[in-house]
Amino acid sequence: GLRSNCISRAFLTKSSIRNFSAQIGSKLDGKIALITGAASGIGKEAAKKFINNGAKVVIADIQAQLGQETATELGTHASFISCDVSKESDIAHAVDYAVSQFGQLDIMFNNAGIACHTPPTIVDLDLAAFDRVMAINVRGVVAGIKHASRVMIPQGRGSILCTSSITGVMGGLAQHTYSISKSTVIGVMKSAAAELCRHGIRINCISPFAIPTSFVIDEMRVYFPGVNDRGLAKMIHDNGVLKGAICEPEDIANAALYLASDDAKYVSGHNLVVDGGFTSIKNLHF
Ligand code: NAD
């Protein structure tokens, strides 16, 4: 199918064979996944990884044109549905779409999220902006869990993932509103895990280090207006902690693949931090 087509179209040098065999697997054969915020960044990379491991993926995103382009780029095992995660009816519709197209929902990845560009101090906190961010970063995740569970409980199985952040694990790394939203995602995940385990459904979080996706670059531009995008990406890489490695969307997609697959069949209620050791270091060099 799609995966063998990918191979036959590839320019088969020794290194491309090595790369393809590293990327392609069967850990999600026959599985149906819905990923929010998958038009770009981490969600797109996870969609690619899931498809290369045998899944069919519904890409749900607020950016209709980009989402459609992403689905086309990822091939026949990807389809797009327009979805604003802050609207419960959109989430319900996306879940129903996945089930009507493919008959089941095995993996729900609540990944969509936004940053918050308002002043960074507590006394200046903009509570209207707070409500907007919480509506997407937290309420959107809660709605995703609710509607995925509606389908997964009768199935008696499923894996739910949520994207948190290292800013949800530690204070002082981002604007309060964003940090609060991401720590709440971990709380939501744990609360849901306590109930969903009775139904054979696992739920976990992933907390990435900073990756120069459009999301982070947009945020950094506010604080470093004179630096171009390449310079901003370099600043993130230079502040990474794991010698010889940088945090890339594929690292998060690999974590998502693990948690979504049967490799993690006894893992639930867990927040998997993917940060090269950053949150373990006492004296950060920022
Ligand atoms: P990104 O901007 O590339 O992707 C985010 C996607 O979410 C976009 O496609 C966007 O259109 C979509 N989106 C935004 N609002 C939406 C809404 N209301 N409904 C549906 N879709 C919506 O950024 P990314 O880095 O891939 O971000 C993905 C997740 O990772 C976010 O939850 C973010 O908070 C989290 N995160 C990112 C980093 C990082 O360094 N990039 C670090 C930690 C956590």
From TrEMBL:
Residues forming coiled coils: none
Keyword vocabulary terms for this entry: Lipid metabolism, NAD, Oxidoreductase
Single Gene Ontology MF annotation: oxidoreductase activity, acting on the CH-OH group of donors, NAD or NADP as acceptor
GO biological process assignments: lipid metabolic process
Annotated InterPro entries: NAD(P)-bd_dom_sf, SDR_fam
Family of the protein in this entry: Belongs to the short-chain dehydrogenases/reductases (SDR) family.
Name the record gives this protein: Uncharacterized protein
Organism: Fraxinus pennsylvanica
